[in-house]
Amino acid sequence: MEILDVLKKYSAGVDREIEKALDTVDPENLYNASKHLIKAGGKKIRPALVLLTAEAVGGNIEGAYKTAAAVELIHTFSLIHDDIMDEDEMRRGKPSVHTMWGEPMAILAGDILFSLAFELVAQTQVDDVPASRVIKALNTVVDACIKICEGQACDMSFEEKFDVGESEYLNMIYKKTAALIAAATKSGAIIGGGTAEQVEALSQYGELIGMAFQIQDDYLDVVSEEEELGKPVGSDIVEGKMTLMVVHTLSVASPEDKEELIFILKSGDESNTQRAIDIFNKYGSIDYTRDIALDNVNRAKDLLDLLDDSPAKEALYDLADFMLQRKN
Amino acid sequence: MEILDVLKKYSAGVDREIEKALDTVDPENLYNASKHLIKAGGKKIRPALVLLTAEAVGGNIEGAYKTAAAVELIHTFSLIHDDIMDEDEMRRGKPSVHTMWGEPMAILAGDILFSLAFELVAQTQVDDVPASRVIKALNTVVDACIKICEGQACDMSFEEKFDVGESEYLNMIYKKTAALIAAATKSGAIIGGGTAEQVEALSQYGELIGMAFQIQDDYLDVVSEEEELGKPVGSDIVEGKMTLMVVHTLSVASPEDKEELIFILKSGDESNTQRAIDIFNKYGSIDYTRDIALDNVNRAKDLLDLLDDSPAKEALYDLADFMLQRKN
User: Fold this and answer.
1) What residues in A contact B148, CB-CB < 8 Å?
2) pTM of the model as a whole
């Protein structure tokens, strides 16, 4: 099965759980604000990872649906709050929640999705999922939530800061993006009843593809065609965003090139974009970024070796590749 | 022991748990923003209720400290986010978190306290607290979080709305305030290993004193001396806030008095305060409010009858009375 079909197949059950969880939210404007971004779509990679890892360790998929939905709600909550903090007016091709309902309601919408996520995890009480596993999964998910907050705080602290080291940058994207993806694969393995070794391997698998996912984001910004990317090429450069290309170039470039790159990043002038890309290329930073993403994906796939062969294992393999195949 | 001494005695262990939970928060500005409101103090009634109810059903207090700390963190998270939404610049006599660190960091500070709260509940894994109890306590706490969000959304929807019915108003303060206090007493009883009957009674006890707490707030605004209240008497009237006095008066007053009260509430003019109080008194709304608070407290105390006598039971009795004794 094509990986996009796999995602679609798994998302139906997840959507049902999310709908059930949201159904009782009251008053109506809070309900509408909470549902907005979920209705707007998204690929639902994270919940699929919970379900696939639960299956891949031989567990029953039914027991994992609530945690899968919870992980998607946590992702959605973080997008809603991030959009407020970053003053982003669009998300998934639609106005962001705070743009439509105002900041107070958007804060609340995020908060209630967050609450509902934990309610879902706590409700994972089917026959073959003992309470001790539920608590372990809960610990896994909550740990990722803490990291998401820390990652966002780090990311905000990087603004106008041009001495961010590579490890500091990688730690930020680990917390902001990879930690929740690792929590998805780890909690799936826990709920599915995986061995300690399997849980650890799948946790690492999630972390590696999560890092690849974010690094590929950096990479796509400069190597894509605008039609495929869905936004102008070089947006990150115009916005002066820290990316792995920037971090790498700043760490190896000559003082002159470094100064010029910082000037461009501060300028917000899109006519400078090609010059920034030239500087990246001069220091091999674009290839470097692609290589790191590829290396992460390969290491992630190797970790799957200790699983028995199954369609779920195959899908996890394909999902790792998908991190680099996606065009937007 | 005096009830304030009881609160002080119990808060030491809670403070230690909170400090441990917050200790690893990174980066530093997020750590400072998260700690700010906790350092500013507060009476710590909610965590004391978790500990006292756990003791009152014969449980070991040690197993309840983490949930007690979690409930206090949830309370703090909701204050931080409410202050952003309501644009309140002061809290506990200090600048609010968003006033000091800006809105983005205040949103994050709330989010991470919320996350840490669930981490604390999930970590309740001492010998005499089985995992099934932890999950029940988690469900209780998370249910209150959902209600807090809904209550705040209701409260915001009441602004400039003068046809709020009494049951609608009481439902709002139940969700916004009483639900978390009920979750404190219920989760304490669960973790302490109380019978189903004890858990239910203590949950109701919490709800009743929570309602009394909020209704007393309404009452104090018009019957206090400014020095005792710590803010000008009649602030709620000047701010045009919905209170039980307003709701009651609007439901029984003549069309003329109703119109005048609405005019005063919209005016924001403090020279009208005494006139509003006169209208409240004309319809017995101030006595009505005090009577409802008193009735809640008495019903709460009656519910304690099914507990064996103990210092914890006595303290719960005194805490119910304390809801109406407090001057601010």
Assistant:
1) 111
2) 0.96
